[in-house]
Design brief:
The protein is 31% helix and 26% strand. By secondary structure, it is an alpha/beta fold. It folds into 2 domains: 3-17 and 236-412, Enolpyruvate transferase domain (UDP-n-acetylglucosamine1-carboxyvinyl-transferase, Chain); 21-233, Alpha-beta prism (UDP-n-acetylglucosamine1-carboxyvinyl-transferase, Chain). The strands form 6 sheets. A 4-stranded mixed sheet has the order 20-21-1-22, covered by helices on one side. A 4-stranded mixed sheet has the order 4-5-3-14, with helices on one face. It has a 4-stranded mixed sheet with strand order 6-7-9-8. Helix 1 (21-32) packs across helix 6 (194-206), helix 5 (167-175) runs parallel beside helix 6 (194-206) and helix 10 (325-335) packs parallel to helix 11. The structure holds shikimate-3-phosphate and phosphoenolpyruvate.
Length: 417
C-alpha cells in the first residue's frame, strides 16, 4: 500500500496514545549501557526504534523482544563495551544517529554509520567539531553518510551550539558518563528543543546518572556516575497524540487517552495551544523553536480556524527534518485549498471553515506530513489521494489501522479506480 484514497469522514471513538518514541530510544540506550538486566515495557517497534535496537545490539547489548500485541517488552542486558567493529544502520532516524555517534565511539573501536531517506543530508557538523577537539579519526562522503569514525571522547568541557539540534547534546549526555571523568557541556547560545534534553536527563536519572543542569547553559556529569539497570514502562507520546487532539479540535469526536499529565515531553504544549485558539483571538503566534514536531499538525489546525490568522515563527530548523517540513506541509495543504504563505523561518496561515480536497498529495516520505494530511482529509469537501502513505512506519506503524478503527475511510488506490 503506497497510495490511498481517503474519503472525508468524521472520526469517532477513543484511542490510547501510542508509547513515546523519544522515551523508547532513551530507555533502550540507557538499558544498553547498564550492567545487568533491564526490562523496558510498552515499546512500538517502529522503524526508528528498530534502528536504535539493532544498533545497540551491534554495540554489544543483548536484547530479547517479547509480546504479541502492538507493543513489545524488551529484556536488555547492557553492553560490555568490547566491540571491535560496529556497523550502525540508523535507517531514517536522526535520534539514533545523533545519540549513537558518541555512544558508539565509547563502546566500539571502529564504527560505520549509515542511513537512508533524508538522514544523510541532516547536519552533523556539531560532532565534526568535537571529533577535531578530541582527535577522533573520521571520514564521510563529503560531509554526508556513511560516516566512519575511530577514537575516544576525552571528557572535560565541550562547548556547543544549542541552535541546530538538541540531539547532539543528548548524544553526548548518554556517552560522557562512560568516561568516568568530570565533564561539562557548555551551551553557547539558546537551546532549542530543550524539552528533549529534559527527557534525556530524566531517563539518565532513572538509570543511575545524575546531571547537574545549570539553566541549560552548563550540564555537568560527575566522574562517580555509573549506569545502573532499571525497569521502565514507556509513557504515551504527546507528539503522536497531537494528531488526535487536533482531529478533535477540527470537528471529529475523538478522545485520546493514556497521556501522563505530568509528562516532561515538550510536545505536551499541544494542549495549551488548542486552548489558546479556543479563547477567540483573531491572530495566534506560535513559537516553534521548542516544539518542532508539532508544526505539521498545527498547520492543519490553523488552516481550519476560520477567521484566525496564525503565525508560526522560529521554525527554520523544520527544513532539516525528514523533509523540509515548512515546504512540504505548505505545498500539500495548499493543494487541498489551505491558504498558507511560506516564510524563510515560518508560515502564515489564514484559517478557513473547510478545505476543498479533490487533489493528489504526497507525504514527502515524512511520517508527520502523512499523518497531518490524514487528519486534514477529515475536513475536506472531496476525497484526497495520498501517495507514499507508509512513511508512517517511521514512528507509528499502526497509524492507518487506528485511523480506520476510528471510522476513517481509506482505500488502497490504484490508477484504474
Ligand atoms: O531527542 C529527541 O527525541 C528528538 C529531538 C527533536 O529534534 P531536534 O532537537 O533536532 O529539534 C525532535 O524533532 C525529534 O523528533 C526527537
Ligand atoms: C524529526 C523526527 O525524528 P528524528 O529526528 O529522530 O529523525 C520526528 O520524529 O519527527
Amino acid at each position: 500500500m503506497s497510495a490511498i484514497k481517503i474519503k472525508p469522514a468524521k472520526l469517532n471513538g477513543k484511542i490510547y496514545a501510542p508509547p513515546s518514541k523519544s522515551m523508547s530510544h532513551r530507555a533502550l540506550i540507557c538499558a544498553g549501557l547498564s550492567s545487568g538486566e533491564s526490562i523496558v515495557e510498552n515499546v512500538i517497534l517502529s522503524e526508528d526504534i528498530k534502528a536504535t535496537m539493532d544498533s545497540m545490539k551491534q554495540l554489544g547489548a543483548e536484547i530479547e523482544v517479547s509480546g504479541d500485541g502492538p507493543y513489545s517488552t524488551l529484556c536488555i542486558n547492557g553492553s560490555k563495551g568490547n566491540v571491535s567493529e560496529a556497523f550502525i544502520n540508523c535507517r531514517e532516524s536522526g535520534s539514533t544517529l545523533r545519540f549513537l555517534i558518541p555512544v558508539g565511539l565509547m563502546l566500539a573501536d571502529r564504527c560505520t554509520f549509515t542511513g537512508s531517506g533524508n538522514l544523510s543530508k541532516r547536519p552533523l557538523d556539531v560532532f565534526f567539531e568535537i571529533f577535531k577537539r578530541d582527535s577522533i579519526d573520521y571520514e564521510t562522503n563529503d560531509g554526508q553518510l556513511p560516516l566512519w569514525a575511530k577514537g575516544n571522547l576525552k571528557g572535560g568541557t565541550y562547548e556547543m551550539t544549542g541552535g541546530v539540534s538538541s540531539q547532539f547534546i543528548s548524544g553526548l549526555l548518554f556517552a560522557l558518563p562512560l568516561l568516568r571523568k568530570d565533564s561539562t557541556i557548555k551551551i553557547k547560545d539558546n537551546l532549542e528543543s530543550r524539552g528533549y534534553v529534559d527527557l534525556t536527563i530524566n531517563m539518565l536519572e532513572k538509570f543511575g546518572i545524575s546531571v547537574e543542569n545549570q539553566d541549560y547553559r552548563e550540564l555537568k556529569i560527575n566522574k562517580e556516575c555509573k549506569y545502573k539497570n532499571a525497569n521502565y514502562k514507556v509513557e504515551g507520546d504527546y507528539s503522536q497524540a497531537a494528531f488526535f487532539i487536533v482531529a478533535r479540535e477540527i470537528g471529529n469526536d475523538v478522545d485520546c487517552l493514556g497521556l501522563n499529565v505530568d509528562s516532561l515531553q515538550g510536545d505536551k504544549e499541544i494542549v495549551d495551544i488548542v486552548r489558546k485558539y479556543d479563547s477567540g483571538m483573531e491572530q495566534v503566534t506560535i513559537d516553534a523553536s521548542q516544539i518542532p514536531d508539532l508544526v505539521p499538525i498545527l498547520t492543519v489546525l490553523a488552516s481550519l480556524k476560520d477567521g484566525v490568522t496564525t503565525y508560526i515563527t522560529n521554525a527554520e530548523r523544520l527544513r532539516i527534518k525528514e523533509s523540509d517540513r515548512l515546504k512540504a506541509i505548505s505545498t500539500e495543504l495548499g493543494k487541498l485549498g489551505a491558504i498558507i504563505e511560506e516564510r524563510k523561518d515560518g508560515l502564515i496561515i489564514k484559517g478557513k471553515d473547510v478545505l476543498d480536497g479533490g487533489a493528489v498529495v504526497d507525504s514527502w516520505n515524512d511520517h508527520r506530513i502523512a499523518m497531518s494530511l490524514a487528519v486534514a482529509a477529515t475536513r475536506c469537501r472531496e476525497d484526497i489521494i495520498l501517495t507514499d502513505c507508509m512513511a508512517v512506519n517511521k514512528s507509528y506503524p499502526n497509524f492507518w489501522e487506528d485511523y480506520k478503527m476510528l471510522g476513517g475511510e481509506i482505500n488502497e488506490f490504484n490508477d484504474r479506480q
